């Protein structure tokens, strides 16, 4: 078997809302492909990809875990699959973000009972932003209240997707036992614990299902010229022709193939594995990535013989040491290679190269373009760094991490644990770019910043369990921002020091105006070269440094600063002088014009029994929230709205007591809004 053939590789993620069944599905995919011989369960705490103690205790996925499998559909040769099981909770969105950044395709999992949920929308948007081709799997078809048709409608309505059902489920809820395959014209029957029975269509089945197959043909033909031509010419469209057309249209992002099953009962797993090979891209099917070099932009097709280019997208710490996960886009990486790094001028050496299977590692000698592997032993690695050949250093586009919004104060129970706490926090911050550690300048206390309460809870728990540090948690702190209240023109920043030794002289004039978005924009409006270019760059640096802390002590956003005039001195002007003059000018402008305080506002979704909706809505109103939508369905309600983060601290505990423990919620950052007066 030639595993080096790129066309037989599939790098894919499993993405979904929390509790849609991602980890259970990944477990079944591994079992069916023969990679594991015993199926682990999330509820038993022994799933292959949820291997950390916290994941097993809480029954949720926290870190994206990589696993390998092989699958050969029909008469095709084996294909190598690299699967990444991603978290469903919004607080760990960075795990999904960086996984989608390096993967070629994804399987979006939806619960047949709950349909498209809030976090489903978030991960779907993430995948679409990275232009990752998707297939959808409607899971939990055997549960009470399951509806395949409802999920298809929600895919259209809520996600603006174009779903193509590749089959028709047979039976409903506990009676779900089969799948009419519209592509291969066959019927699959599933019995609990037994292999599927496959029956090709006879005349009766064809008469029953041909109309659905024709509808699928027509839907795909609208987005594939080759199929449309064959359809219009009246040619017989066999399974191979239809499969090729669905693949082309899926790779182009025109539609989403949809399958159904019940992962827990082993139903629909083989058809999904076939679909992964049939419809998701190989590295060759994805657009070539571009990288920056000293000579300009370089386009990198996935060629093992090309220049080395890999993105270090994730760091974990296991019993073996630090594992740096790398996606290779071009070239070949071998044990013993010395490589250039975009973060370390001296570069790095590859001492051990491994293929990762959840928490197990297997040594390999080399990796080629299209591979996802890990390097063992890089203690100071940084998420987002580019690895390239020393002869041709390259820089790939970095991974964008959302700024954290909530902070906790941490204090070790014993002063002797201070160093160990610092080491543990540094290790956790290295793993997770959305987790930040800083020291309060006024009180010298340690602050940890994260995406929400669950995120910080997990980090503190890991500090206690992995680093054996007993820490106390202080009052939360929210990440506020400032924005200018009005425009200011002709603001002067002037630095004159001409006594004794080398003088300092700089004179700048700035115009300042608010912006609608949260960007910080600097414009060079100098005419006639009155300020040299190097000094203009120094002014910009000074302005941006000063904007990190506004008059009220928070970062300033939503501002446009224009350098309109200035003066220099032939001897005494320097970059440092203009840096300081720029900083003084912007500080003066903000002090005079004033700033408005902005606070993070969360989009909140509460799932509650209908009887508790009144209490839930009343509680959100008391927290200065505003309700956007209430969807009531069969005794359960979904309340969607927005509320300031500062008012949501401890919300999950409060919600449980409001609903006798029957309600749950999730929240993600909606944006920043002016602080409302109490």
Describe this structure as you would to a colleague:
- InterPro entries: EF-G-like_DII, EFG_II, EFG_III, EFG_III/V, EFG_V, EFG_V-like, G_TR_CS, P-loop_NTPase.
- By secondary structure, the chain is α+β, with helices and mostly antiparallel strands.
- The protein folds into five domains: 6-285, 3-Layer(aba) Sandwich (Rossmann fold), CATH 3.40.50.300; 289-388, Translation factors (Elongation Factor Tu (Ef-tu), domain 3), CATH 2.40.30.10; 406-479, 2-Layer Sandwich (Alpha-Beta Plaits), CATH 3.30.70.870; 482-593, Ribosomal Protein S5, domain 2 (2-Layer Sandwich); 597-674, Alpha-Beta Plaits, CATH 3.30.70.
- It contains 15 helices and 37 strands.
- The strands form eight sheets. An eight-stranded antiparallel beta sheet has the order 18-17-23-14-15-22-19-20. Strands 2-3-1-4-5-11-6 form a seven-stranded mixed beta sheet, with helices on both faces. Strands 24, 25, 26, 27 and 28 form a five-stranded antiparallel beta sheet that branches.
- The longest helix is centred in the first third of the chain and has 19 residues, at 203-221.
- The protein is globular and about 100 Å long.
- The N and C termini lie far apart (69 Å).
- The model is unreliable at 40-64 (pLDDT under 50).
In short:
With 678 residues, this protein is an alpha+beta fold.
């Amino acid at each position: 078997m030639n595993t080096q053939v790129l066309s037989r590789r599939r790098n894919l993620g499993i993405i979904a809302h929390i509790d849609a069944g991602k980890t259970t599905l990944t477990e079944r995919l591994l079992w069916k492909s023969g990679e594991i011989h015993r199926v682990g369960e999330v509820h038993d705490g022994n799933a292959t990809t949820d291997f950390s103690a916290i994941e097993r205790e809480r029954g949720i996925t926290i870190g994206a875990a990589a696993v390998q499998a092989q699958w050969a559909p029909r008469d095709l040769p084996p294909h190598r699959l690299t699967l990444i099981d991603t978290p469903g909770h919004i607080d760990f969105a960075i795990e999904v973000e960086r996984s989608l950044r390096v993967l070629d395709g994804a399987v979006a999992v939806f619960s047949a009972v709950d349909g498209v949920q809030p976090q489903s929308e978030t991960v779907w948007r993430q995948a679409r932003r990275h232009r990752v081709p998707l297939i959808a799997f409607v899971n939990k078809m055997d549960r009470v209240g399951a509806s395949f048709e409802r999920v298809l409608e929600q895919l259209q309505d809520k996600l603006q997707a174009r779903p193509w059902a590749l089959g028709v489920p047979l039976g409903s809820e506990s009676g779900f036992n089969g799948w009419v395959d519209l592509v291969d014209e066959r019927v699959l029957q599933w019995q609990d614990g037994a292999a599927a029975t496959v029956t090709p269509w006879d005349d009766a089945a064809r008469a029953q299902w041909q109309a659905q197959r024709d509808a699928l043909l027509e839907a795909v033909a609208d987005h594939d010229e080759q199929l449309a031509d064959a359809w219009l010419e009246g040619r017989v469209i066999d399974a191979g022709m239809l499969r090729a057309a669905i693949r082309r249209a899926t790779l182009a992002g025109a539609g989403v193939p949809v399958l159904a099953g019940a992962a827990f009962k082993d139903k629909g797993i083989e058809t999904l594995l076939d679909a992964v090979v049939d419809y998701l891209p190989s590295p060759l099917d994805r657009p070539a990535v571009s990288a920056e070099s000293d000579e300009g932009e370089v386009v990198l097709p996935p060629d093992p013989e090309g220049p080395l280019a890999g993105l270090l997208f994730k760091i974990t710490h296991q019993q073996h040491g630090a594992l740096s996960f790398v996606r290779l886009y071009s070239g070949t990486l071998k044990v013993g290679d010395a490589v250039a790094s975009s973060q370390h001028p001296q570069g790095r050496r590859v001492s051990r190269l491994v293929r990762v299977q959840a928490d197990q590692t297997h040594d390999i000698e080399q990796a080629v373009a299209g591979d996802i592997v890990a390097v063992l032993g890089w203690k100071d690695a940084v998420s987002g760094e580019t690895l390239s050949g020393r002869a041709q250093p390259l820089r790939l586009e970095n991974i964008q991490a959302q700024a954290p919004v909530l902070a906790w104060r941490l204090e070790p129970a014993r002063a002797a644990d201070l160093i160990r706490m610092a080491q543990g926090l540094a290790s956790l911050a290295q793993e997770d770019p959305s987790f930040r550690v800083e020291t309060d300048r006024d009180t010298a206390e340690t602050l940890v910043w994260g995406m929400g309460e669950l995120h910080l809870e997990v980090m503190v728990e890991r500090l206690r369990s992995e680093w054996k540090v007993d820490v106390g948690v202080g009052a939360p702190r929210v990440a506020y921002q400032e924005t200018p209240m009005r425009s200011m023109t002709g603001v002067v920043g002037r630095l004159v020091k001409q006594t004794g030794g080398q003088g300092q002289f700089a004179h700048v004039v700035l115009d300042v105006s608010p912006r609608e978005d949260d960007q910080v924009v600097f414009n060079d409006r100098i005419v006639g070269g009155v300020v040299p270019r190097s000094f203009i760059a120094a002014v910009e640096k000074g302005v941006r440094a000063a904007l990190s802390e506004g008059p009220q002590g928070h970062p300033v956003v939503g501002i446009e600063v224009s350098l309109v005039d200035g003066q220099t001195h032939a001897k005494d002007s320097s970059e440092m002088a203009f840096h300081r003059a720029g900083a003084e000018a912007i500080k003066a402008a903000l002090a005079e014009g004033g700033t408005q305080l902005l606070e993070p506002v969360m989009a909140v979704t509460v799932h509650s029994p209908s009887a508790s909706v009144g209490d839930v809505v009343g509680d959100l109103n008391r927290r200065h929230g505003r309700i956007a939508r209430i969807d009531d369905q069969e005794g359960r309600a979904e309340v969607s709205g927005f509320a300031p983060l500062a008012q949501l601290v401890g919300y999950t505990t409060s919600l449980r007591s409001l609903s006798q423990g029957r309600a749950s919620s999730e929240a993600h950052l909606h944006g920043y809004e002016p602080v409302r007066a109490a």
